[in-house]
């Protein structure tokens, strides 16, 4: 059975993640160097930590999905993004910003691969379309939104541009409240219970 309404809601979640990811990736290093008076090396370190944490987040997202379900893993990721953004905006210096970058990397990458597999489960008869749409949106929409975010940063400042990103994980979390968890085969559910115990 094809669940197109859930697929469309998940696609909207992917759009929120894409714009937020590109915004953070674009502004993080600049924020550390210009707003927090950090060195260029510290700005680069923050971006490196963000991407390295993202690699870890992708792995953890898969494991969390196996234990707690795909929708639960997606929610956990976006829930981490909110304190990450708050910590970045409130950071008194580069060290705190680097810690915030780790949270943001984990949070934005936890849902990444999980969203693709969830989309395929919502429309099992169109798995290629599901993967293409979710991966395509993950890359294209954020890139298209980046110029608008850049203009906002030029006119209102980097802090304002980053603050606008707050709305995106909030919207993503609200959308996930209407995402059903796909039914799992009995054997898979049994293995999940064993792991949790």
UniProtKB/TrEMBL annotation:
Q: Which UniProt keywords apply?
A: Membrane, Transmembrane, Transmembrane helix
Key word Transmembrane present: yes
**Alphabetical list of InterPro entries matching this protein:** MFS, MFS_dom, MFS_trans_sf
The UniProt entry, under SUPFAM superfamilies, shows:
MFS general substrate transporter
Q: How does it sit in the membrane?
A: Multi-pass membrane protein
One GO MF annotation is: transmembrane transporter activity
- Annotated protein name in UniProt: MFS transporter
Source organism of the structure: Streptomyces coryli
